[in-house]
Amino acid sequence: MEAHTGPHGSVNPEPGQPCMFGGHLDPVRLPWKWATERLTRARNYWIATTRPNGQPHSRPVWGVWLDDTFYFSTGSLAAQNLASNPAITVHLESGSEVVIIEGVAEQITDVSLLEQVIGMYNAKYRWDADPNDLQKSERESPRDSSGG
Where are the domains positioned within the chain? Predict the structure, then answer.
């Protein structure tokens, strides 16, 4: 990205194409369905949260994609971070089929939704989680997404 000076002396970024292996990539807008297929079938996801002091924190999690929302659980430092700042980034572990979503995490309070999510989670990971034992379940609805 290059910067140029605007008419009132402001500096505005000018989008540029990334240089890859000596050439430039042509921009491609992928359909949302392409992203949701990968979010649904992924086994591992990475979440990025922000500590209260502003320092970033990333960690892998398991989760499920349901109705354009990513559901996961965590009892780690990430849960503490989300309690003070619910902004979150979720991305797949793949570096060749990249999907990144940004949004706000919320704790699930709807018992029937929690049971549905846990049922999907148990089937996907061959797990036997009980909704009554789950310390912290979060959901993240995308505000922005990138795929490439």
Answer: 30-147
